[in-house]
Design goal:
Structural class: alpha/beta
Number of helices: 8
Number of strands: 12
Largest sheet: 6 strands, mixed
Oligomer: single chain
Radius of gyration: 18 Å
Strand order of the largest sheet: 3-2-1-11-12-9
CATH architecture: 4-Layer Sandwich
CATH superfamily: Metallo-dependent phosphatases
Length: 260
């Protein structure tokens, strides 16, 4: 099986279309999404509809979940303002047509984690599928041994796990050595049958690893590889879409230029 795994689209329609066009060229069996279709960006409606029609299944991200809160707790004011605007766009009323209700119900029904045989898919972290960030620093030994967080994460993994949420791609095994995609030959990681492995797949719509190109991965279960894909898209065109929505602060679209 060759499966594309995407995540953290965040209402970035142009980045999503570019990623899916790249997927189309990769001889895939299916595409799945680890959540955060919503948040930050100007096109949540279009992105939900595309994910709903394209992906075999999807998970719920923390931004998606925040749409169903009266107040989006745990978000800075820029992210909260984006969620509040998107909620007004998406939440159906008694007079709403079926398409709007179906879209809202689709978001409400998604879980934050999914297990398939020995592979765990989560939005955020194996030990906290909705909210906990997984980043390189979590696995560093600063002289006192590895953190309890790092140990706990791997206790929740049977063999392989995929996550998003931090927007910072990388691979780490139960030896706690974090590897960045750029440090891999052809940005491809060879999986082990004996080592537990966690893969942070990065973000399609809001990269934060100092690379503005969207990021997703391809799992090849026959070759036992994980391939990271970076996808260039028209950032300036996407920024113009942000500018059409006064509720979206310029900080949310300026950062697209630098991937930070």
């Amino acid at each position: 099986m060759r499966r594309a795994i995407i995540s953290d689209i965040h209402g970035n329609l142009i980045a999503l279309r570019a990623a899916l066009e790249d997927c189309r060229k990769q001889r895939l069996d299916d595409i799945v999404c680890l959540g955060d279709i919503c948040g930050y960006g100007p096109d949540p409606v279009e992105c939900i509809d595309i994910i709903k029609s394209t992906c075999k299944w999807t998970l719920c991200g923390n931004h998606d979940a925040a749409l169903f809160m009266s107040v989006a707790v745990g978000f800075n004011r820029y992210a909260r303002a984006a969620i509040d605007w998107q909620r007004k766009m998406l939440q159906p009323h008694w007079y709403s047509l079926g398409g709007k209700r179906n879209r809202w119900n689709f978001l409400a029904e998604q879980p934050a984690a999914r297990k398939e045989e020995k592979t765990l898919y989560v939005h955020a972290s194996p030990r906290d599928p909705l909210y906990e960030y997984v980043e390189e620093a979590d696995f560093a030994d600063i002289g006192f041994g590895h953190s309890q967080k790092a140990t706990d994460i791997f206790e929740h993994i049977e063999l392989l796990s995929f996550c998003g949420h931090s927007h910072k791609p990388g691979v780490v095994t139960d030896d706690f050595q974090w590897i960045k995609p750029a440090d891999l030959d052809n940005m491809t990681y060879q999986l082990s049958d004996t080592r537990k492995t966690l893969v942070n797949i990065g973000s399609v719509g809001q990269p934060r690893d100092n690379n503005p190109d969207g990021c997703y991965v391809i799992l090849d279960t026959t070759a036992k590889t994980i391939e990271f894909r970076r996808v260039h898209y028209d950032i300036k065109a996407e920024q113009k879409r942000f500018m059409l929505v006064p509720e979206l602060d310029e900080k949310l679209w300026k950062r697209l230029e630098t991937g930070t």
